[in-house]
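Sharing a chain and its predicted structure for anyone who wants a worked example. Both blocks are below, sequence first, tokens second.
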Amino acid sequence: MALNEDQDRLEELYETFFHDVYQYLLYFTNNSSEAEDLTQDTFMRVFKSYHSFKHQSSQKTWIISIAKRTAIDHYRKRKLISLLPDVILNLGKSEEGIPEEEMEKNEEWELVQAALSKLKPDYRNVVILRGLREYSVKETAEILDWKPSKVKVDYHRAMKLLKKSLVNSNEEAVLVNERKIR
């Protein structure tokens, strides 16, 4: 009976947190296939180590921290310097049949992804967790194993750099468009 209860509990964890883990890893890798693989790896680790969960944080925080370690381990094995690939992928959407507004949103998202990929890994992590996934300072600190003050400072610095990068990208796009018009 206890085995069935554990299995039910693990299935519930998977169903409850799959989307959060996948989205975090998608932001982290910018590759849907890698994010899917890493999500599966994350839940394998969760299932193997669930008995050691000490309830010192929420289950969500614990699982996302496992996802972070899974992604870092994956990239270390591949010996990548950067935690995000340099290539910005179009997340599986074709431009055919997409309204103009959607195409503009995709272009804006690509600019954000490009700017995000230029940040150092610590800044990238804090922006993903605080800005994109909307975790609290406390949750972000627990996931990254930082003090809350470091989360606040790094998030502020990262957002300044991100905004600067986006402004520069936007200015470059305007110059390119002006040249096309002439």
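Comments welcome. Residues 148-181 form the longest helix (34 residues).
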